[in-house]
Write a structure and sequence with these properties.
The protein is mainly beta. The N terminus and C terminus are likely disordered. The chain is built from one helix and 19 strands. It is globular, with a radius of gyration of 20 Å.
């Protein structure tokens, strides 16, 4: 659920609202990572979710149970927003199977971009967050917040010098090309991922789609810390073109992770 965007000028950005308590066992804070926004500037809306003690919320794919965390964004005219960037999730195992989510504070970065021409002195983004919080029971939550961003007709704004933002951004998955000797491809009905790392604990979290199932992974170590991870697929939907997931190194959520995206078949003129 993502919509398009509106204009920006020069004044200081309104102070971010403090996290708002919610009966659904999580508090939400929405802010940006820039002081103001200028023409064609790329920046982020940052949604910070803090679950209550003992509760957890879910990743963009909840896994065997639960429900994904989602956003509905109404940007100002001319602005655009992209797909939310989620940090590497925790892996929870229960009687229903494996689920993915967060039991501590988490920051999701939503890319945004200003138009070439900015006419107003302020841009307002209406951001609605939907989540499911679970402990012994599960409760749906919804939070709406308007984010006011000052704009400048000629000059792009500076990044906020905020240690929290830097720490949160370091937790986002990297692109796979940033891993040494990394490759990703479809071989038959499997994803094959290769790369070099001294880390011995290597895993994969697939993003579920209708008609796609990820089967038992096979990890092989080659020479010089080089590995090959094979993830068999069960494809029941022939329309699926993109397979997505995370390659994970180590066992902690602050260990590196990398975005995996492979195309199952080429797009032709007749598709």
């Amino acid at each position: 659920m993502y919509l398009a965007l509106l204009p920006l000028l020069l004044v200081f950005q309104h102070s971010p609202q403090p996290p708002q308590p919610n009966s659904a066992h999580a508090s939400i804070e929405v802010r940006t990572d820039v002081g103001w926004v200028g023409p064609e500037q790329s920046f982020h809306l940052v949604v910070v979710i803090t679950p209550d003690d003992g509760w957890h919320v879910y990743w963009k794919d909840s896994g065997a149970s639960g429900a994904p965390t989602e956003f509905e964004i109404q940007p100002p005219p001319g602005f655009t927003v992209g797909e939310p960037q989620f940090p590497r999730p925790n892996v929870f195992t229960n009687k229903e199977g494996v689920t993915y989510g967060y039991d501590k504070q988490v920051a999701i970065f939503i890319p945004a971009e200003a138009p070439k021409t900015i006419e107003s002195t302020e841009a307002i983004f209406d951001v609605t967050t939907f989540w499911l919080a679970c402990k012994k029971i599960c409760i749906m939550g919804e939070h709406q917040q308007s984010v006011h961003v000052s704009t400048n007709k000629t000059t792009q704004g500076p990044a906020h010098r905020d240690m929290r933002l830097q720490r949160w951004q370091r937790l986002l998955p990297k692109q796979l090309v940033e891993l040494q000797n990394a490759t990703q491809q479809i071989v038959g009905t499997s994803i094959v991922i290769t790369g070099s790392t001294p880390q011995q604990q290597i895993g994969f979290i697939g993003v579920d789609r209708v008609g796609v199932a990820f089967l038992q992974r096979k990890l092989v170590f080659l020479d010089d810390n080089h590995f090959a991870l094979t993830v068999p697929l069960k494809l029941e939907n022939t329309d699926v073109r993109m397979i997505e997931g995370l390659l994970t190194l180590g066992s902690n959520t602050n260990d590196p992770s990398y975005v995996v995206q492979v195309v199952t078949k080429p797009v032709t003129k007749h598709d």
